[in-house]
Design goal:
By secondary structure, the protein is α+β, with helices and mostly antiparallel strands. The protein has one domain. The chain contains five helices and four strands; from the N terminus they run H-H-H-H-H-E-E-E-E. It has a four-stranded antiparallel beta sheet. The longest helix has 23 residues. The protein is globular. The mean pLDDT is 89.
Length: 148
């Protein structure tokens, strides 16, 4: 684990925009983790249909924002106590993208593991562009998308 001083140096090395994004990601990840433990899944679907923000970024701005959002979610998740699984990461990515006018969609899928068990995974894409959790998706069957 990194020392607090090293963490502070790393934080200070980020651009001001990424610092704000990192703080937003950390808070959103904590909120998502709490919501997933405290609220029934069917009641969370309203949050997963977060409205699209008013902004209309260009394709190059969208790509930069997607990359920054993906980066800060990974950084925040790595430094928060406990494990941050794919679901809170996806909820955070979708929230951060959609409030900036990026039409990100969260997918919830399942795959057969070892012929007998199931595993679930949640990821976020902006059209065909990856945001978070988009590794090895070929084995997952999409069960739901948000917004629907």
């Amino acid at each position: 684990m990194l020392s607090p001083l090293r963490l502070l140096r790393g934080f200070r090395g980020l651009s001001p925009v990424r610092r704000v994004l990192l703080l937003e990601a950390a808070l959103a990840l904590i909120a998502a983790r709490l919501l997933l433990h405290a609220v029934q899944f069917r009641r969370l679907t309203g949050l997963m249909n977060y409205p699209l923000g008013d902004g209309k970024p260009s394709e190059s701005e969208r790509a930069l924002m997607r990359n920054d959002i993906s980066l800060v979610i990974g950084l925040a998740a790595a430094h928060l106590p406990g494990e941050t699984a794919c679901f809170p990461r996806a909820m955070t990515a979708q929230f951060m993208c959609r409030r900036r006018g990026i039409d990100a969609r969260m997918s919830y899928g399942a795959a057969v593991v070892g012929g007998t068990g199931l595993t679930a995974h949640v990821w976020v894409e902006d059209g065909s562009a990856d945001v978070v959790g988009c590794e090895d998706l070929s084995r997952f069957r999409v069960l739901a998308r948000f917004p629907a």
